[in-house]
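This section describes the prediction task in plain terms. A model, or a person checking by hand, is given the sequence of a single protein chain and must write out its three-dimensional structure as a string of C-alpha cells. No templates, partner chains or ligands are provided. The sample shown here is typical of the held-out split.
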Amino acid sequence: MGLFSVDYRDVKDQCIYAKGGLKFRADETRLRNYFSSILTKVTLNDLIGEAVFWILFPASLVILVFPVLLFFKGTVFAVVTSIVLYLILDFLHMILYIKPLNYFVFIFGNRILQFLYYIVWGVVFYRINDIGSIFILGTFILAFCLGLDRLISGIVLFFPYAKLFSPHSDQILRNVGWYYGRKYGQNPSSWKM
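The expected answer:
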C-alpha cells in the first residue's frame, strides 16, 4: 500500500465508505471490475485514498492563501478572491487529477497544521494590532471546518455538475483511476462500470 492508502468499508451491492466517511456510490466488486486492469499495479485502497486527498485540494489551497491575501490586500479582496479561487479550483479538480499536487494536500490538508498556520497568522495580526483581521481569520477557518465551502460550491455549481459529472467523490475516483490507466498505457475511456 502507498502513501495515500486509506481503509474503506464495503456495503455489499451499494457503496463504499472511505475511512472518515466519504461515500463512493459503487461497491467494492463493481470498483474492482472497473479498475481491474490497473489493480495489479495500484491497490483499490490507494485509488480511494488519492481520491479522498484530492477532494481536499481546493479547500486546502484556499485556506493556505487566505491569510496572505488578508494581510496584503485587505478583507474584501481576500474574501472575494478566496471564494472565486475556491470555485474555480473546485470545478477544475473535478476534471483534472495532478498527482504531485496531491502531495501538497497530504501535508497542508491536515486540519491541525491548518489550525497552527492560522494561529501564527493570528499572532501576526495581533502584533500589528489588527483585531478585526483576527476575527475574520477565525470566521474563515471555522467556515471551512463546518463545511460551508461545500455548501457554496454545491449551490453555485449545482447545475453544471448535475449535467456534466457524476457525484463529486465518484468523479474524482474515476479521474484518479484514469490517471493510472493512462500512466500504464491503457485507454480508460473504454472501461465499463
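For orientation: Strands lie at 8-11, 15-18, 23-24.
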